[in-house]
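Pasting as-is:
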Amino acid sequence: MNIQVVVTYRDHFFNRLVRWWGIKWTHAAIRYKKGGKWRVFETAAFGTVERDWDSFIEGVDEYVAFELDKSLSKVKQEKLLSFAWGNVGKMYNIFILIKIAIQYLLGGRKPQALNVTAHVCSSFTDACFAHVGVDLVKDVEWATPDDLADSELLEVVEGGQ
């Protein structure tokens, strides 16, 4: 089983504004294979869900998929997916998103532990890996999709659209 981090960009007004600020990727998720087909865990405005890859990628203009430079053991993969399943149904945390935006505008972020009952896409993705002892993004309060894409622990395995 391969567990991947996927970052995406959809071209619409808000995301163009985000790119103008210098942020390349606007969404992050976890992709894994189940029954020979790709599935995705993500957190978006509708909360944390698990769904099929085709519906996830529909309307995406750009994406890149990454894998860890060292593979996770089967036990850690199962633990990561179990943690992700345990988050399904949690609400989207608009307050973290607002705080990330403010911190970007102010030009800096400081490290702090993340302990929330709701997520944004990238904090959810980062938290799933942290749950199995993999710190994808070091010294960042709340990871952004760009932070994940820049992780030294991840290697590009696929890019498209």
